[in-house]
Design a protein that fits this description.
Order of helices and strands: HEHEEEHEH
Distance between the termini: 40 Å
Helix content: 25-40%
Largest sheet: 3 strands, parallel
Strand content: 5-15%
Shape: globular
Oligomer: single chain
Number of strands: 5
């Protein structure tokens, strides 16, 4: 779908919100789109903002396959805002220590 939007010159997005994505390949595809949009916006700082909600599970259980977790983990560094719930933030040290904001 994104390729079709690009071909039609309908890919000038200011913001992207990504949420529940059940498969690792789809998470990676969404990540490639967001990274592409961020690269294109580099010439205009603050012209693109990516909100990543890594919907993976809650109450001690994953909703997604295990391979989705590392796929999301690889995207965290590219997102402008990350909205995990407590379970997602804590799950198998989802965030690398350098990514955890200090109080």
């Amino acid at each position: 779908m994104y390729n079709g939007l690009q071909q039609s010159y309908l890919d000038g997005f200011d913001m992207m919100l990504s949420g529940y994505i059940p498969g690792a390949a789809a998470v990676e595809a969404v990540g490639r789109i967001a990274v592409d949009l961020k690269k294109r916006a580099k010439s205009e700082p603050r012209s693109f903002f990516w909100v990543l909600d890594p919907v993976m599970g809650d109450n001690g259980n994953l909703y997604v396959a295990q391979d989705v977790v590392p796929a999301y983990r690889n995207l965290v560094k590219h997102a402008d805002l990350i909205l995990p719930n407590q379970f997602e933030a804590e799950y198998e040290t989802f965030f690398e220590p350098a990514q955890i904001p200090s109080p």
